[in-house]
Design brief:
Blueprint (H helix, E strand, L loop, with lengths): L7 E13 L6 E13 L3 E5 L6 H9 L6 E6 L2 E2 L6 H7 L2 E4 L3 H4 L6 H12 L4 H14 L16 H13 L5 E5 L7 H18 L2 E6 L2 H7 L2 E6 L2 E7 H6 L4 H8 L40 H5 L4 E4 L2 E3 L5 H4 L3 E2 L7
Parallel strand pairs: 3-8, 3-9, 6-7, 7-8
Antiparallel strand pairs: 1-2, 1-4, 4-5, 9-10, 10-12, 11-12, 11-13
The structure holds iron/sulfur cluster.
């Protein structure tokens, strides 16, 4: 077994997910050779515009989609193939919370039944023990026990998302993958759910892979941030460092697009213009070059490597002189 740092929980190694186009030699390269590491108890935010590949990456990590190439390691071992007993056992330790609780909850099942399903799938318990565990889980997400007999349509959006979180916790996971888990909620409810997730992380030593397009949410919850563009990670940094000094022009533009986000402390940056190119035919050289205000001739011909220094990485020639030649072609795995 290869060396695997003890505090590393998840390691994504050069993972690609490509979707072949019918009657064509080409494929949509939704995720292209992405590498990432996530430590125990850490929250890593994955950000980028819609269609950048972040949700596809999340689904490949939890096993809802098979990768085209690359590997996912969890707790020191490669993930077993989809459909195997070993993989099903591992699923207990990685749970997912989706954006839309209505799509996640069966309208015909009570709240208690929805949460109990998660308990019963992974533990053999007496009926009384399951009921006690359901009440414990509802309490842990701040829901009154009286709600257990209700149906999803009788709950608010925030309450339904709490039920989804309780159900995800039922298997005692080590990692929660939250895919836009607060995006559909009102701002005040969003803040409550973020606080809840922070409390749960500390209480149960959970790690989060937090997928969102909302940089305000990122700043509230994440320890580190990975920025995705057109299937690749273009910048990775501790949250505070990224907000104070974004290095990649794409990250700068994303931050500049959010009003009142300490913009006065950073250099002014032109807003993002143009459409995101198709991942079926990404631009030559740097994938961001058609939209980059700093584009150079070299950017059109040559794809930048990921330049790394300390906990920071950026896939851009602009940091080459600052970061030197310390580049990792697989990008993203910092310790
Ligand atoms: Fe812009 Fe060139 Fe950097 Fe790409 S490599 S982000 S085009 S400056």
């Amino acid at each position: 077994m290869e060396d695997f740092p003890r505090d590393t929980l998840l390691s994504v190694k050069s993972l690609s997910v490509h979707f072949p186009l019918p009657d064509s030699e080409t494929a949509v390269r939704a995720v292209d050779a992405v590498s990432l590491e996530l430590r125990r108890g850490e929250t890593l935010a994955l950000v980028g515009e819609s269609g950048c590949g972040k949700s596809t990456l999340a689904r490949a990590i939890v096993g809802l989609r098979g990768p085209t190439s690359g590997e996912v390691w969890f707790d020191g071992a490669p993930m077993a193939p989809l459909g195997t007993r070993a993989r099903r056992a591992l699923c207990r330790r990685i749970q997912m919370v989706f954006q839309d609780p209505d799509a996640s909850l069966d309208p015909r099942r009570t709240i208690a039944s929805a949460v109990a399903e998660g308990v019963e799938l992974h533990e053999t318990r007496s009926r009384g023990a399951v009921e006690r565990r359901v009440l414990e889980l509802l309490e842990s997400v701040g829901l009154d026990a009286a709600l257990r007999a209700r149906y999803p349509h009788e709950l608010s959006g925030g309450q339904k998302q709490r039920v989804c979180i309780a159900r995800a916790l039922a298997t005692r996971p080590d990692l929660l993958v939250c895919d836009e888990a607060v995006s559909a909620l009102d701002v005040s409810i969003q803040a409550q759910i973020i606080n809840l997730l922070s409390d749960l992380r500390d209480r149960f030593q959970l790690a989060y892979l937090f997928i969102t397009h909302d940089l305000r949410v990122v700043r509230q919850i994440a320890d580190r941030v990975a920025v995705m563009y057109l299937g690749q990670i273009v910048e990775l940094a501790p949250t505070q460092a990224l907000f104070e000094r974004p290095l990649h022009p794409y990250t700068r533009a994303l931050l500049a697009a959010v009003p009142n986000l300490d913009a006065a402390r950073r250099e002014p940056v032109a807003a993002l213009s143009g459409e995101v190119p198709s991942p079926a035919s990404p631009p030559s050289g740097c994938r961001f070059h058609p939209r980059c205000p700093f584009v150079m001739d070299r950017c059109r011909r040559e794809a930048p490597r990921a330049y790394e220094r300390g906990q920071r990485s950026a896939r851009c020639f602009l940091v080459e002189s600052e970061f030197g030649q310390n580049a990792d072609p697989e990008f993203g795995a910092t310790s």
